Recover the amino acids of this structure.
């Protein structure tokens, strides 16, 4: 069954309004770069639009969005190449104003502290923790996204939460 163009467009706009911030966070917590996360978010929604504009039905839009975003992040990581400062300036790089840089640094320090804690977790636990507590996905949604059982995901979330709590208590942060 194919959706009509009007229905696809309405659904897409609703998905964008509902999930744009969540998909951005999902990307940001994996690349730690605001502009790159915005680009990956845009790529995600462009891919979803391409899929929907061909008349394909979306049974679980949230899972589709996260799956496409994750694949975009993986693709970017594979293609990532270092650029020289000269090349960046040629492409339009402009230094940031000091007050903007200060806010960014404060935000980056807080992010670094959180990521230091999360980086002590095994990948499967870190991913489950981020998807549950940062992205706000339910275990069933994470199970669909990761192609694991809900029980496996629930156990991973529980173990990750316990490990993070233990680290926070050890460092006297809580």
């Amino acid at each position: 069954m194919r959706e009509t163009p009007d229905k696809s467009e309405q659904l897409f706009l609703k998905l964008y309004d509902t999930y744009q911030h969540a998909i951005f966070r999902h990307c940001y917590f994996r690349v730690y770069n605001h502009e790159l996360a915005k680009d990956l978010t845009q790529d995600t929604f462009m891919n979803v639009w391409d899929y929907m504009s061909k008349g394909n039905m979306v049974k679980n839009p949230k899972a589709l969005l996260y799956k496409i975003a994750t694949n975009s992040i993986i693709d970017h990581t594979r293609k990532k190449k270092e650029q020289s400062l000269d090349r960046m300036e040629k492409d339009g790089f402009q230094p940031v104003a000091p007050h903007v840089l200060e806010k960014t640094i404060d935000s980056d320090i807080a992010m670094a502290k959180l990521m230091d804690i999360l980086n002590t977790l095994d990948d499967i636990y870190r991913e489950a923790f981020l998807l549950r507590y940062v992205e706000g996905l339910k275990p069933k949604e994470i199970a669909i996204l990761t192609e694991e059982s809900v029980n496996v995901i629930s156990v991973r979330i529980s173990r990750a939460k316990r490990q993070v709590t233990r680290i926070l208590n050890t460092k006297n942060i809580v």
